[in-house]
């Protein structure tokens, strides 16, 4: 799956060696990979978290529900192969504005909040993701508040 994710994240370059423009699917793959890592950090992955991941991919990344489920299934099947979140945060940093990265972090917070509790390991990983996305403390807190204010 890592090779599939890398191919989606880093497609072949064009004739001039410039990377192709990102599409919503590629960004959804990177964001979903981060959300899957979060859902597994507390060793209590639950269906509410997985449904939230699909919902966020559809709303934020404009992929179809079927595409979102396929991306999630691939990420779940190969989550143990992933050794680092850097490749995913790097892709998002290259392609997204600060506001868009903050919306991704908001989605990540929604996954953490989906089961009704925030584990200390989840909070630590989210903070690390925010740092890797070059989001400051204010942006981190705004994303958390927006995620917790949204009705379930």
Summarize the structure in words.
The protein has 152 residues and is mainly alpha-helical. It is built from eight helices and no strands. The relative contact order is 0.16.
What is the global morphology? globular
Give the topology string: H per helix, E per strand: HHHHHHHH
Strand content: under 5%
Chain-averaged pLDDT = 82
Query: Can you count the helices?
Result: 8
Ranges where pLDDT stays below 50 over 5 or more residues in a row are 12-20
Q: Profile the largest sheet.
A: none
Distance between the termini: 31 Å
How many individual β-strands? 0
Quick structural overview:
This protein has helices at 2-9, 24-41, 47-61, 65-77, 86-95, 98-113, 120-132, 137-149. It is mostly helical.
Secondary-structure topology with pairs:
Elements: H1 2-9, H2 24-41, H3 47-61, H4 65-77, H5 86-95, H6 98-113, H7 120-132, H8 137-149
Features:
152 residues; 70% helix; mainly alpha
């Amino acid at each position: 799956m890592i090779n599939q994710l890398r191919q989606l994240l880093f497609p072949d370059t064009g004739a001039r060696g410039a990377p192709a423009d990102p599409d919503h699917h590629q960004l959804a793959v990177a964001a979903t990979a981060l959300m899957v890592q979060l859902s597994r950090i507390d060793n209590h992955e639950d269906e509410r978290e997985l449904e939230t991941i699909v919902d966020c991919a559809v709303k934020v990344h404009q992929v179809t529900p079927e595409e979102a489920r396929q991306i999630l299934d691939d990420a779940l099947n190969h989550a143990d192969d992933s050794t680092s979140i850097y490749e995913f945060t790097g892709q998002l940093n290259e392609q997204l504005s600060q506001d868009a990265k903050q919306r991704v972090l908001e989605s990540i917070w929604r996954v953490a909040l989906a089961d009704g509790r925030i584990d200390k390991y989840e909070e630590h990983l989210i903070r690390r993701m925010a740092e890797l996305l070059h989001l400051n403390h204010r942006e981190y807190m705004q994303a958390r508040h927006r995620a917790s204010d949204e009705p379930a």
